[in-house]
Structures are given as structure tokens and as C-alpha cells.
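Deviations from the work plan: none for this task. Representative record:
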Amino acid sequence: MEDRIQFRLKADKAQQGFTSRFSLFSVAAVLLLVFSALLATGMGSVNLSLSEVLNSLLYCRNDLNDNCLVDPISRQIVWDIRLPRILMALITGAGLSVTGAILQSVTRNPLADPYLFGISSGASLGAVIVMAVVSTAMVSITMGALIGGAFSVLLMLVLAGRAAVQVERLLLSGVAVSFMLSAFTSLILYYSNPETAATLLFWMMGSFSNSQWNELWLPTGTLLVGVSLFFIYRRWLIAVQAGDESALTLGIPVNRLRLSMLIVCSAITAVLVAHVGGIGFVGLMIPHISRFIVGAQIHRILFMSLMLGGSFMIWVDVIARSLLKHQVLPVGIVTSAVGSFFFFVILKHRTRLR
Amino acid sequence: MSQDRSILNNPNSNDSSPNDLDADHLSEYADQSEPAGLLKAEKLTWAVDGKTILDDLSFSVGSGEFVGVIGPNGAGKSSLLRCLYRKNQLTSGMVEFAEQSLNDYTMRGLAQKIAVVLQEPPTRFELSVADVIRMGLTPNKPLLSFDTLDDQKAVEEAAEQVELSDKLEQEFNSLSGGEKQRAMIARAILQAPELLLMDEPTNHLDVRHQIEVLELARSLNISVIVSIHDLNLAAAYCDRLILLNRGRIVAQGAPELVLTKQQIQQVFEVNVHVDQHPFNRKLRITYDLGGEKHGR
């Protein structure tokens, strides 16, 4: 009897310990994100102190505020150049990570990432068609990439057809679509002039340089809708992790759930890729790191992915724009370089723990 | 054609003779000798790619009954269970649960009534035991709801019932086979079902854990349908048995009626000796391992 009570106490304590550990990590992650955003706003070719950043953020939205102690140029740097860029980086990082987390759990494939359906090749094809064939005056590159990304998802679903209910076949047809669209991109590039090729190459490697306030709405909105859906269906998403048949016996329409989640994730990814280009590896890496920190419960992973993904991308952008003097490195390069290094460290650490 | 003939040959089949237990009359007999049919299968047939896997099965399971499905590998035991939890759609025939066709239930509605413990629950990610057990709440909770303290308590109680209280925060994958089965039973307990389906829950378990799992299932006091390989365990734990062979029911009823020397020899193609178990007075099946008749 006493043993039982002891067990019970121990179990309770373990439960509490785990929950409070999660709360601790969440607070830390939120703080990390906030400070990353603030610090990153101060960093760049013109360095601003934290107090200057805070002052201009709080009081200098319009010039007429008396409390504004920052000179107009710094104000402009903060509000018109850095802030939209940092927010775009944040949303991109958060969005790609959270879609990665969802895709990994609904396909139960640890290698799944947001570019699963050849979205990035579809977007590239759209962008290159706009650049080389149509004309950027008629359709913006973003619009072209968005259409391309959406097209790739549609194509994949149509080609997969009835096989779309099986994860493996869906993944394979995603790979096939990806190669098919890449072939078209290469073909167009082969016959276009070097400038177009260079522009496309730079676009594909990703950049936050041209981020404007008015471009933020679509990515933010899509991400918010997506995350709400993930949150609403979190019970089902958790249950699917223990296998399709097991989830089916819990009354979950597994195939429909998976397909809708894939489509939501594709929408988020397509919108992000259209705005900032193909930025790889975040969507694969951050969910794994999150899972490592907070365990397998999907809502915890989602929250952690949002925070860590956002923070990570903000710092990637800082490195991209400050590593070389007077030159901005493509974000994709920095992500992959920093990310893979970071990932190796975590993987090693984790193996040692086992 | 054949149907016409059977009606001609059997003048009783259209009017209701007292021996006919069709759906309309079942309730009248319910409180008498027959247990109320919680689950009723009539002419259940399931074919895939033109190949008939389950052929014309009719049986019923009363509430509180512990029914074993036995038969050799490939006899259709798992397929039958799959038909009952609607993973397989019937080709023809029908299954009723609580006097309502299985197809009339919503997915969620069915999951509130029928819980399933599958053979080898696979997980790839590091779900804790508590996470797995908590999944049992899914059918009974609205999508947009948080786990309350009561839910947490229910999880702990279910874990205690299967004696996994001290392992709640462990990784599910780190459990032994028997513990995994018990965790899955705890998950089923949380679903608060009226019927529990178990697909070969004793596979890969040692003797003690096999007994443990079956005892646990019995202790729930709900209807259970379990597919099982060990005939002695089946005889000891089941109220009734359904013996399948090549997708057809060979015999069904009390263990004494089903596990006869002749039927076992016919279906499993081994020589056996059937007598009374010295301890529990149930059937004992002893296999002829001498190999004189069936030897190499």
C-alpha cells in the first residue's frame, strides 16, 4: 500500500516536473524570440543601442511624438528597413518550422519537410517564367512564384490520384513533380540570358532584402490560419503519431486529416517561398530540435517550433547581412551552413545522452 | 435461385417460429436464456480483389460476453475484427451494434462504443506512456477542448488499473511487449467502450504476461472479442468461441462444443487429446508431438 502511494507521489512529481519544465522552456523561448527581434533591429551597418531601438519602437512610429529621442535617419532605418525585414524573417522561420513539424508527424516520416511536394521547384518555375517569358512589369515575381507553388501541389495531388491516401506514394509523386518542374526551370534558364539566370539563382537562394510592410500581410495571415487549424486538430494530430490504424479506431478520419494538413502546409509554404525564395533545412531541423527539447506532444512541438524557428531565422538574417561588408549573403546559404553545423552538434549531443 | 429453394424446403423460414431468433424477436428473448445481442453479424462477407476472405459469417456477441476467435493463420481472424471496427468495409451482409447498423455510426460515435487493441502498436516518435494512454480521450472530447484535471485523473486511474502508474512519463517505446499491451488497454479503458476488440493481444508475450493481459481484459466487465492462438488460454478465458477456417465459421459456442478433438484435428491438422484441466476444470488440449502419424 505504502509502495503504491510512493509510486503515486513519484508519478505526480514526474508529471509536475515535466509540465513545469515545459513552462520554463516556453518562457525562455518567448524571451529568446523577443530579444532576438530587438537585438537584431539594432544590428547592421548602422549599429543602434537597445535603448535607441526601444525608444524608436515605442515612440517614433510617426515623427510628431515628443518622446521620440532618435534622429530621423535611425527612425527610418528601424521602421522602414529593419523591422519589416525582421518580421518577415520571423514569420518565414516560424512558418517553415511549424509546417515541417506537422508534415513530419502526419507522414510519420522524420525526413519530411515543407518542400515535400516540390513547392520550391514549382515556385522557382513560376518565378523564372515571369522573369524570362512574361515580364516582371505584368506579373510580380512573387505572384508568379505563388502560382507556380500552388500549381506544383495541384499537379502532385492529381498525379497521385487515388494513391494520395498512401503516404509513401504521395511522397514519391511529390519527388517526381519536383524533378519534373526543375527540368522545365533548367530548360528555360538554358535558353535565357545570363542576367535572368543570375537573378533567378539569387532569388532561389532566398533573401529578406526586399521585405516591405505591405508584403507581410499575406504570409502572416496564412500562417495564423494554418496554426489555428493545427491547434484545433491537435488531438487528432497526436493520435495519428501512433499509427494510422490505431488512429482510425479512435474515430479519426486519418486519410482526410492527412490530406487536409498537407494542403494547409503547402499553402503556408507556397506563400512563404513566393515572398522570400527557397530557404531549406529550417523546416527539417527546427522541429527535431523542438521535439528533442519538449517531447512528442504536438502542441508543445508546434509552439516551440514557432518560437525557435522565428528566432533562428532572425539570426540567420543578421549573419547574412553583417558577415560581409557592403554585401548581403543569400539567406539560404547561411541557413544551410549554420543549420547543418548546429544540427550535427545536437545530434552528437543526443547520441551521447542515450 | 438457391434462396428460392431454401424457402421452399423450409416452410418455417418466413413465419416466425419460436426458434427463429431474428432481429425483431431477439429483444423478447433477451431477458430469458439468450444474452442480449450487443453485436450481431449476419452473413458477413468480405472480399478483396475478387477473393473472398470472409464468407457468410453469422454470429452474435452478448453484452458482457468474452468471445474468442480462433483458427489457423490466414483463417481470417484479423480481417473479421477489422470488419467489426470498420477498417474493412463489408462486401455484403451486415453487422449491427446495439441494434443499429455499424454503417450508421459516425467514426467518432463508433469509437465511443468500440475500442480496439491492435497487435503491435507502432510509434516512431518519442511518445510517453501518458501521451499514448491519453489518446483514449480523443473520441469523447470535443476537438476544441483542453484536458481538465479530471481527464488527468482518469489517465492516472487507467494507468493504475493496468499497473503502469510508475511508468507514465517513460517513453512508450521503452516498454516491454506486455507493458505496451497494457498501456493500449489503458487507452481503451479511457474510451469507456461497450465492446473491446483485441487482435492477438498475447502474441510475443511470455506465459505470465499472456495471462495478465487476458485477466485484465476480463476484469473490465465489458464485452470482449479477442483473436487468440493458444487454444488452452482460449478455453480457459472465453465464454464462447468462434472457430474460423478459410474464412468460414466451422463451429461456434461454448468451448466444450468448439474445441472437440475432431474439429481441432480437422482445422489445425494436428493430433490432439482433449480432457479436463486438473486445476481449473476447463478444457485441456494436449498436442500430439510424437509425430507418428503426422511426423516427417
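Residues 177-190 of chain B form the longest helix (14 residues).
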